[in-house]
Amino acid sequence: MVVLFLVAAIPAIAALRLPLTVSSYTKDFYNEVLKLPAGSVAVFGNTFEVPPIEARDIYRAVILSLASRNLKVIFLNFEAGGVAASEYIVSYSKVESLYGWRYGTNYVIFPYLSGQEVAMAAAAADFYSAYSKDIRGTPIGDIPIMRNVRSFRDISLAIAQYGIFTFGDMYVRQWPVKYPNVTLLIIGQYYGIAGYYGKNVMGNIDNTAPAFAEYEFLSGFPGEEQTKTESVNTQAFLVMGMMIGGVILSAYKRTQKVSAEGGSQ
Hints:
By secondary structure, this protein is of the alpha/beta class. The chain contains ten helices and six strands; from the N terminus they run ααβαβααβααβαββαα. The chain has a domain at 24-205: Rossmann fold (3-Layer(aba) Sandwich), CATH 3.40.50. A six-stranded parallel beta sheet has the order 3-2-1-4-5-6, with helices on both faces.
């Protein structure tokens, strides 16, 4: 038991990068992020009701993936808790210290916009009509990241997060269907957007621990789910190794016993 505990603790100290099967949907999500040229602007649509503390590492991995590509991000919030969630994600990811992100230049957070699907449509059609200021009170026209971005016609990538599956339909209807230039990636239940996949939705991190571990592994930004997966796998490898070793040792002892009995005769 002590050995198993010690072995399981290794991934918590340092990611082992053990081989991990990654779904095609998670790979698609990661590859679409890689396609964007440095300096591109992406939208991150939030439908958080509270900050994602329990699943924070997957959002950290996504944001760090964007930052490592030198991409800029506009955070849009369609539930009341979205603003706090957006601020939490940025703070927890430490992108300002790790990648020199500056508010207003590399990212901006806009206030909660009520109306759900109506709000999604309004923001996509014209940021300047949907919002007058950001969460810090800066007029939208004075925000550096927004100077060359008026609507979804001026962006190439949108990442949408949701927990209630009906939001997936809303995002699809109002973003990629109306703006074919926008690649939509989803962080949410796959079954909610399965019918759109490959046409309107080009990547998906399913709202499950295995998918979170997959993206953390692919992106190179390990988090809690990758650590848990590696701990379980490390324990399994140890148990299998012990079982195989036990079989070999048992066979060897039987061989030795037979040899000894034959010699004594």
